[in-house]
Structures
1.
Amino acid sequence: MAKSMLVIAIGGNSLIKDRQHMSVPDQYLALGETSAHIARIIERGWNVAIGHGNGPQVGFILRRSELAAHELHEVPLDVCDADTQGAIGYELQQNLGNDFRRMRIDRQAVTIVTQVEVDGNDPAFQLPSKPIGSFMDEAQARQRAEKDGWVVREDAGRGWRRVIASPRPLRIVEERAITSLLRDDFAVITVGGGGIPVVTDAHGNLHGVAAVIDKDFSSALLATTIGADVFMITTAVDRVALDWGRPTQRWVDRLSLAEAKACLAEGTHFAPGSMAPKIEACIEFLEHGGGEAVIANPENMERALAGEAGTRIVA
C-alpha cells in the first residue's frame, strides 16, 4: 500500500525563536525541536517533503558580504539562496538522521539544492517590493542604484534599503529527483527559501536572478507537483484567526475552500505578508486538486494531522 504524501513548509520560528537566539547553534537547536515532530510523523507512515524559509539567513550572508566588501567580492543573491539551502538543509537532515536513529526508524533525510523557475516577464520585476540587506543612508543607496542597478527605497523612516521582486514560482527544476527520492522513502528537504529563482533564456539555459520567491507558494507548487495528500504550513500561531488583531478576532478550526477564498477577498481577516500568503498558498494547492491544507504551529504538527489542532482548509 502506498504511503500518504505530506509536504510541510516550516516557518521562520523553526529556525529563530527570538532575537536573543539567532546564532547558528541556536538555529540548529530550534530545528531539532521541529525535526522531532517531523520524525514522529514519518514514524506513523507518512512520506514527507520539507520546505523552509531563509529570509534572516540570507540577510546575515548579505551583511557579512557587505562588511567584507573591501577585501572580498560580494555574494550574489541567488548564490545566497544556494548557500542557505545547503546550510539549513544540513542542519535539518542531521537532526532528522539523529531522530531516526534514536527512534529506530530505517529512513534517511537528504537535501536537494533546488532551482525554481520564474517568468522573467512577471509583473513583480517591474514592481519590486521585498526589502533585503542592510539599511543605508540616501547617498549610499543612490550610489548602489547607479553603480549596481539596484532598486532602492526609503523604509518607514529607518533608512534606505534595496528592494527586489517576488515573482510567482512556475516550475521546480529538480522535480524528477525529488519524486524519485520520495518514492524510495527518503525524507526530502527541498525548495529552501522558496527555491533559487532562475529564468530560462532563448536557448533554454537557466540563469539565476535577483529575486525572492515566497516559500509557501513554492511549497504549495511542490505539493501539487508530487501529488501530496496534505499540504501543511507551520507558523508561530496554533490556528488561523479571522478578524486578526481586532476585538472581534476569533480562532477557526476549519474552513472550506470557498470560505477561505471569501475571507481572503475581504482583505480584513489576514495580515498581508504574514497569514494572507499562507492562506493563498493553501487555496492554490486545493484549487489544483489537493485534498486538504493545514496551518498549525510546529509543536502541534502531529495533532493537526490527526484533526486535533491547527486549522484545516478543505476542498
Note: The chain has two domains: 5-119+171-239+291-302, 128-164.
2.
Amino acid sequence: MTVELRTMRWWDIDAVMRLESELFADESWTETMFWSELAQRETRHYVVAVDGDEVIGYAGLCAYAPHEAYVQTIGVTKARQGEGIGTRLLFELIAEAGRRDCPRLDLEVRADNDTAIALYERHGFHRIGVRRGYYQPSGTDAVVMRRERTPA
C-alpha cells in the first residue's frame, strides 16, 4: 500500500490514542487533549499518515499567524519508523506554517530522543534552549528547537 497524508478527523482519535500509548506510555496525550486540538480549527492543523485504512502516524501544528507556529506532536508507529513517514509529516507541518505566513516554527523534543533531534536538525531546526523537567511524570528535559523561514 501507499502511505497518504490526510486531515485528521474525530474518528481518527481512537487510532491516534493507540499510537500515543505505544510511543509515549505514561506521557501520552489524553483523548480530551486531541478533541480540544481538533476543535480549534482556526489555529490548528492536524494530519494523519494512513496506509490503506490503518493510521500509522500523526502530526499537529499550532499557528498564530503571522507571528509564531509550534509543532505540537509527531508520532509514527514503531513498526513503520525509518521509512520517511516522520519526515513527510514534518514537511507537511513546515508547509502549513509557511501557508500561514509564520516566520518561525518552534518545538520541544525529549532531550533523550536522539533520532528525533537528528531529524529536526537535518531539516533546518536548531537548538535554542532547554526546558528542565518538561516531560511528566518522568521529569525528562525538553530541547527547544526553532526553524526560521528562509526568504523566497
Note: The mean pLDDT is 94.
3.
Amino acid sequence: MDLVVRNARLAHAPEAPPVDIGVAGGKIVAIQLGLHAEAPSYDADGRLTCAGLVETHIHLEKSRIADRCEPETGRQPMAMERVSAVKHTFTVEDAYRRSSQTLEACIKFGATRMRPHVELDGGVELRTFEAVAALKRDYAWAIDLELCVFPQEGLTNNPRADALLVEALKQGARVIGAAPNFDPDHAGQIHRVFDLAREFDVDIDMHLDSGNSPDDMDIHLVCELTEKYGLGGRVAIGHGCKYSTMPVAGLQTLAKRIADAGVAVTSLPATDLFMQGRDQTDNVRRGVVDVNVLVEHGVNCSISTNNILNPFTPMGDCSLIRMANLQAMVCQIGHAHRLRELFMMLTERSARLMNLKDYGIAVGNPADLVVIDAMTPEQAVAENAAPLVVFKRGVRTVTRSRAELHHPGT
C-alpha cells in the first residue's frame, strides 16, 4: 500500500467506530478496523472523513473583479451590467490568474470535484473558456473540473452566444447551462439549450427562477422538457429564489413535481442573499430556497458558492462548509438530522447531481479524502469546521494546522 488513513470517522456513518482506509495506486483498496499494512500513514484521530467536497456551481472566470467594476448605486445592484462593462478586459492570462486564485482557495477548503459555470458571449468570446480549460489540466493533481458553458446575457437575441456554445461543446464542454432571466424569450432559450444538450449528449445545469415573487416561473417548462426527452437525473437548476416566496403547501407541491421529473436544485445562499429583495428597504426577504424542504419531498439538492468577490457577491472565502452553515442560518435549520442533510448537499448529493459514478469512500474508488475538524456532519455545519488535510488520489494536497492556545506558563 502507498498510504493508510487511520482512525477515520466516515461521514456517511459517523456513529460507527473509526476505520482505517488503505490506498494503493491512487485508489481505495481497503476499509477496515485495525488495518495491518506497512505504509506511510496519517492519523485522522477519529475526525470526520469524507470523499472530498463537491462544488457544483461556481464562476471562476469572473471572480475577483469587484475592484475593477463600477460601484453599485442605490438599492439596485445592476450586477450583470457592471460585469458586462468590463468583460472586454478579460484576457486568457487575466482570467487564468484570477480563476486560479479562487480555485486554490476552493481546494484549501476541501473541494476535490467542481463544475465551473463559464459564460460565453461576444464580450469574452472563448477567452475565459480557454482559461478554465487550462485550469482543468493544470490543477488535475488536486481537483477534477467539469466545465458547464452558458449564455449569461441572452441567447435568442444573441447569435454570437449560440455559436460560441456550439464551439465550446465541440471542444469538450460536458454540461450546457442557461440564464433565461436575461433573455427576452425565456422559453426559446430553454428549448434551444435542451436541443443542444441532446445533440451533444451533455447534461444541463441552468440558472433559473431568480426573482422576488413566484410569478412566471420557468421550472414548469424545464420539468416538462426533462420528462419529454427522458433526461431525468441529467438536469439541474441553480438559484430558485422564487421558490422561497411560496407558501409552504405550494412549495411542497412544487417539490414533488421537481422530484418526479428528476430535476436537481442547487442553493446559492451567499449570492441570493446579496442580490434578492432589492425592491424592499425594510423587512427584506431572504430569497434563499429551503433545500431541506425540497429534499424531504424527494428532490436531490446541492449547496454551492456561485460568486466570489464580484458585483454578484463582493465577499467570500470559497468554503463550502461555510455555505452550508449560511444556508442553515438563513432557513433556520437546527435539528441535527437536517444539518446532516446539508452536509450531504456538499458531498454525496452534489456527486449525484454531477452523476459522478466513482464518488465515495468505497473500495475501487479514487482515494479523494478530506479530514474535517469535527466528529459528525452536523457538527461540521454548525461550527463551520475546517478541513485539516486533503488527499487527491492518495496524494496529500492540503494541510491545515489546528489553532492552538498558548496559555501563560506552558
Note: The domain at 53-353 is CATH 3.20.20.140 (TIM Barrel).
4.
Amino acid sequence: MAEGDSPTVARRRVRLAIREAREANNLTQLQVAEQMEWSLSKVIRIESGEVSISVNDLRPLLAFVGIKNRAEVNALLADARIARTRQRKAWYQRPEFREHMSDALRRLIEYEAEASAFRSYSIYYPPGPFQIPAYASALTGAWTHEIAPASLETVVEARRLRRETILGRLGSLHVAMVLDQSVFERTIGGPVVLAEQLRELHDLGNRGLINIRMLPFDLDSPIANNASFDLISIAGESGGEVMYRENGLTDEIVEDAASTARHRERFEQLWHVANEEVDTIGFIKGRIEYLETKITERRSRT
C-alpha cells in the first residue's frame, strides 16, 4: 500500500489481486462462493468493483485463492481498510444521481477523479466531460419521451459535475482524443450549439490542455472501424488501464488486461494515422468560421 492511496486505487488493487489469484489457481467464482458460503452475486460484485470487501471476509478469501505471503496479505488487508472508506459523500454516490446512472458510469466517474491519463476514441460525439452544457442538453433532449423532466434535469446536472471535475484537473491530467471527422460535422443542437462546442475544443487544444487529432473521411485505414471507447490510466496504479464503452443501450467497464492492452494498441494506431494536432486545430477553426457564416446568413434572412 502506498501512502496517500485513494479508496479507488486501494479497492481496485484488492479485487484485481483476488481475481488474478483465483484464475491462476483455476478456481471459478462459483467455487469461491461455495467455499466462502456467499452468494455467487457477491463474488461477482467484489471482483467487478461494485462493492468493497471487509477485512474479515478478505482474510479467509486470500488463503483460499492461494495468497499466503505475509507481506502481501498485510498489504492487501491495509488496502481493504482504505477501500472501505469509499467516498460516500461524493456527488455521484448521492441517491438522486445513483438512480439515473449505471454502475459502469459511476465507476468511470470515480476512476476519472483519480486518473493520470484519459484517452478517448469517438466516432459520434466529443467525450462526455468535454461536452458543453448546451451540447449535452441537446443530446439528452433526444430522450425526453423516455425521461421525465425532473429526471432529465438530474442527468444534465450529473454531466455538468463530471465535466467540472475533469476540467479542474487539466494540466495534471493528460488528455488525448482521436475524433472522427463526423464529430465536427454533425450539428447536434444546431449550428449555434455546434459552433460553441467547437470553440471549446479549439480553445482547450490551442492552449495545450488537451491533445486532439481527427480521423478524416478520406482516410483509407481499416482500423478506423473500431467502436468508440475511453481508456483511463489511474494514478499510482500498475494494474493496467480501465476501459469504458457504450453502445447506446448498455455500457460497461472492462478491466481485463489483455482487452485493455489491445484497445490501447488500437488507440495508438489511430493516433498515428490521424491528422496532426496542428492540422486538427486548423480544421476546427475552419468549421467554426463556416458555421458562423451560416448563422449570420440565417439571421439576415429573418
Note: The longest strand covers residues 115-122.
